[in-house]
Amino acid sequence: MTSPTARPSSAGTCPPSAPTGCAARTPGFTPLGPWIVPAGSVADPSDLQVTLKLNGKTMQDESTKDMIFDVARIVSYISQTARLLPGDLVLTGSPAGNGIHWGRLLRDGDVMDGSITGLGAQRTRCVAQEAAAVGAPVDPIAVK
Questions:
Q1: Does pLDDT of 16 surpass 90?
Q2: How is residue 133 annotated by DSSP?
């Protein structure tokens, strides 16, 4: 999953007390695919290479070995307060190298290519969004 978020306007979208990932829940901002791989088909979730390229330039390239908390611990923690059902998704965050790290947010025409070893790849093209109404706050980028 490539995961653009509405960073410039997330302050207006998400209150300061909102959980991490609030802006990622904006419609169109959690593209999934090209398919969902069942957990049983992943040999070792703690040894996958996660890569993101922006316009052909590698911006993120890390192993899940480097995560602060492994997948099993994250699922265990979440399931202490939330009922997880088959088909639920647990989003773990991204490796170092997001747009804030590079001092560059997504722009109209940008193309993100994300991949995870053994799981597939995804291409996301960013398109500037036109204002929905005069004076209405609008996120600057929509994903297609």
A1: no
A2: S
Q: Is 53 within 8 Å of 112 (Cβ atoms)?
A: yes
pTM: 0.69
As beta bridge partners, residue 49 has 63
Q: Is 52 exposed, middle or buried (0-12, 13-18, 19+ CB in 10 A)?
A: buried
Strands 111-116 and 120-128, sheet pairing: antiparallel
Give the tens place of pLDDT for each residue, 32-66.
Answer: 766 778 888 888 888 999 999 999 999 999 999 99
2 burial type by CB count under 10 A (0-12 exposed, 13-18 middle, 19+ buried): buried
Tokens linked to 13 = 């979208």
Secondary structure (3-state) at 64: helix
Tokens found for residue 60 = 């993120």
CA dihedral sign, ordered 97, 129, 111, 20: positive
Specify burial of residue 29 (Cβ count, 10 A radius: 0-12, 13-18, 19+): middle
